[in-house]
Amino acid sequence: MFGGLLSNGTQKFLSTPVQSVKDLNPLVSYLKISYSTTDPVLNDRIQFPSFYRTIPNEEAEIDGIVQILKHFGWKWVGLIISDDDTGYRAQERISTALSTYGGCLAFTTVFRDIYFSYHHAEEIAQPIRKTSAHVIVVYISTQYGFVFTTIFAIYRFPKKIWITSSFFPRVMVFRHQKIKTTFNGSLTLLIQEGEIPGFEQFFRRFSPNRYKDDLTINTWAWLFGCNFPRRVRVRLETGEMAEDCTGNETLSDADLSVYGNHNYRVTYRVYTAVYALAHALHNLYSAQPPTNQHLNKLKSLTAKIKPWQLNKYIRNLTFTTSTGDTVFFNDNGEPPFAFDIVKWFFLPNDRVMRQKIPTSQCNEPCSPGYRKSKIEGKPLCCYDCIKCADGEMSNTTDAANCVRCSAFQKSNTERTECLLKPVNFLSYTDTMGASFTSIALIFFITACTVFGIFVKYWGTPIVKANNQHLSCILLISLMLCFLCTLLFIGRPIQICCLLRQVTFGIVFTISVSSVLAKTLTVIIAFNATKPGSKLKKYVGTKVPIVLVIICSLGSIVISAVWMASHPPFFEADTFSETDTVILMCNEGSVSLFFCVIGYIGTLALLSFIAAFLAKDFPDRFNEAKNITFSMLVFCSVWVTFVPAYLSSKGSRMVAVEIFGILSSSAGLLGCIFVPKCYIIFLRSELNTRTF
């Protein structure tokens, strides 16, 4: 004896197929080929070096069921298993596999007894009737088939999608109506069918007339629901006794269609196992040297060949069956395999029913724009869908987390994608930006016109009064003040950020210093007329010009310190407003910025005080009143500027500063120079020395 076939269908090893191999383990050198044992323990080549099989192990079948679940997106699945290694192995692999794509088990119920009891039946039935899962997997060992069919023949269960393991065809012989109703449309994963040449014809000629053994007679009576006198008595479902068999019945396709051709699958595995053993023996005998012709060849070879030698030839075996299938064994002693997905229909009158494949999830999947949120006390695959927060997105179904958009992006309304935030800055194309530009240019042209008028009427008394050179300096500085506002409009760049505050501070200081110098000129001139006054030596143009230069130097020093320590810089502010990116010039040092504003304000306050003191001097060309009003306008604007500037962001903050520059500059231009132009053009009789 060199090898043999094993089956888990024998009476001795029906309940523990692995034990059948272990019982033979002392004969470790003998080759063993199984056509029905699926326990993965037998893959251990250390314990079972000479074990092979022509059917895949049950882990492959379990993984096949998982692929079906994954293919249809079934995540909320019930599981029925048997109380043995097969069942618990299926539970572990299916549960683990479901978790990899966000699924989980709705329930797990266990067949704990191979015999029927109502208590046990209730334990099985209750979870099935209560579950919200639309898909239930049944993976039990064959020995639990009787109690399985008994329970499903008694209870009526809700409509579900059933996926069963390869045990199912063996229990379909129990054709109870409730079983057919429950499992109509169920899926079973079966080893792929193969063809055995001539077997179909042999099977069709099978009858008790040719084979009179008990197995044939019992099978015939069971298939056709008839009796063999004094041998087999069959009772129909109606309770009546069946008619006698004639022995002339035929196994037509219609007779076997109820059960399918599942038996051929097992038969083909037996066929493959026998041929594998035959090919291995043939290769083994062919490899032996020629023997003495006078000796019995078989006895001579049997004496020379050892049982363990056959293992080598089966391990390296590759052959092709008559139907073209290639057979070989991998390192675990298993053949190449594939599965068929069999769908069971029990329909009267050959009706065909079409049904859409349902989903089976604990809850509806989260759409893009939402994320999963675990529900306390529920399995992981049961969750709420929470909409992504503003600034976050998800573009996949059942996203575990939302993805935060970058600082320069925002999420759309559906929270399915990130969009670039619009930028916020005071543009020339904006209504506000265009308005400020127009106003600045109008005031600039007005200042240029006034300057031209002063040049033309340079020698007139109204122009000469209160130092005409200071008036020209003041007009030029006002022109620059109007123009410097253009540095605040448009997309900020680094050079503009550096220039605009410095330019504004210095030019505005020159303007206010000129006004202060004009006021002091009036005071000095009036007091110099008093007898013995020492102020006569300060009358003239030099002292006011020096004063303007000294005051301007103060602003230049502050600006230089500012630029050297904390210069302004370009910044994209993504935090102040959630929906926009504010392009702005960061002042670098707010304290130094307000030092410039405070310095200009101090000069303006001094000018106001001086002008107020000189407003009643007896001189027809005295500008003190005009300067007083202009300083009131100037101070009012910049006092309100500070809170407005601090409470603004983005383009509004820039607009506040531009408004402050334009309005205060326009106040100086209007209050000081409009009265002079009025006299020049409309009251020219007043513009004479005699008057």
Automatic annotation (TrEMBL):
It comes from Xenopus laevis (African clawed frog). InterPro entries: ANF_lig-bd_rcpt (IPR001828), GPCR_3 (IPR000337), GPCR_3_9-Cys_dom (IPR011500), GPCR_3_9-Cys_sf (IPR038550), GPCR_3_C (IPR017978), GPCR_3_Ca_sens_rcpt-rel (IPR000068), GPCR_3_CS (IPR017979), GPCR_3_vmron_rcpt_2 (IPR004073). The chain crosses the membrane at residues 436-458, 470-490, 502-525, 545-565, 590-614, 626-646, 658-681. GO terms for cellular component: plasma membrane. The lineage of its organism: Eukaryota, Metazoa, Chordata, Craniata, Vertebrata. This is Vomeronasal type-2 receptor 26-like. GO terms for molecular function: G protein-coupled receptor activity. It comes from the Eukaryota. Its main location: membrane.
